[in-house]
Amino acid sequence: MSATLLGSIARTTAPQTMLRRFLALDAVVTTGNGLAYAAFSAPLGRLLGVGQTALFELGLFLTAFGAGVGWLASRRRPPVFPVKFVIEANYAWAALSLVSLAVWFEPTAAGTVWIPAQALTVAGFALLQQLALRSADEGSGAQ
């Protein structure tokens, strides 16, 4: 992905700002999903074909994870190691979401659409964050 395209998505060419914006977007979406999963675990579980308890627990986890990502986004210069952890966790989440379709869950039609869609969204966040982190590292002279 070119720096120009990445900058246009983030609406800035400042690498640290770009990284912070992608982290913030991830935090808002993740926390929002987590709150919805926790608050509405019974109806969403029925809609998606995922157990209510599993969805509630995922919701609590996502809410906490999203808050942590939000904290990173609030830093003037997000620390590299925690950002790398977020990126790797997002890639792992995307992969496990797809595996869950075949191994753990018996999703409804809505779940069969939703689970891969959210997996692709999370993988997209990871990719944008990874590219922005690389750009920020290059801008600071770090290798």
Q: Can you put this structure into words, describing what you see?
A:
It is a single chain. It contains six helices and no strands. Helix 2 packs antiparallel against helix 4, helix 2 runs antiparallel to helix 6 and helix 5 packs antiparallel against helix 6. It is elongated.
Helix tally equals 6
> If you compute it from the alpha carbons, what radius of gyration comes out, rounded to the nearest whole angstrom?
16 Å
Helix content: over 70%
Class from secondary-structure proportions: mainly alpha
Average the pLDDT over all residues and give the rounded result: 89
Overall, the morphology is: elongated
How many strands in all? 0
What portion of residues belong to β-strands? under 5%
Name the quaternary structure.
Answer: single chain
Tell me the series of helices and strands, N- to C-terminal.
HHHHHH
Biggest sheet overview: none
Low-pLDDT segments: none
Q: Give the end-to-end Cα distance, rounded to a whole number of Å.
A: 19 Å
List keywords for this structure.
elongated, single chain, 143 residues, mainly alpha
Q: Which helices and strands occur, and which strands form pairs?
A:
Layout: H1 3-10, H2 15-39, H3 41-48, H4 52-74, H5 80-103, H6 109-140
Helix pairs in contact: 2-3, 2-4, 2-6, 3-4, 5-6
